[in-house]
# Entry
Amino acid sequence: MKRLSAVCMAIALVLLTSPAFAQDFPTVPPNMKEAEAKGLPRVGAEELKAFFPGVAKFKGTTGKHLMTFKPDGSVDRKGFRDTAGKWRIDEQNNAYCLAFTEAPHGFGKMHASKENCFAVFRAPDGTHFFDYDVANGFYAHVWRRAKGE
# Structure
């Protein structure tokens, strides 16, 4: 009887920790080279224009947040260091770029951060997108459109 309980517990643990149950965002290749090697399609500037403006849920290296991209080129980030900034599409590099207004180390005078641009790859599920920093090729975020968008 103890063996049966142990087997059932092991099966339950495997199921609960499988990617389908463990997270609502898919596993991401760690850098742009691996995303390309896996054959993930890169999203071009024209397709990016269909997503922005809009609202998207992001999960990055620093946590989850909701970003609202507005038609005037402004963006609001809620959930991780709530802040505002600017966004734009970089057509030449098939990327989108963000620059936020933040206080260094969480206090003090507010200032505009350096602009970061991101290459976007479509995840195999067709719903999520992987962002890689154009400057270094490393993973930055995984995101999807917010429901109703």
Q: What stands out?
A: Residues 1-23 have pLDDT under 50 and may be disordered. The two ends are 51 Å apart (CA to CA).
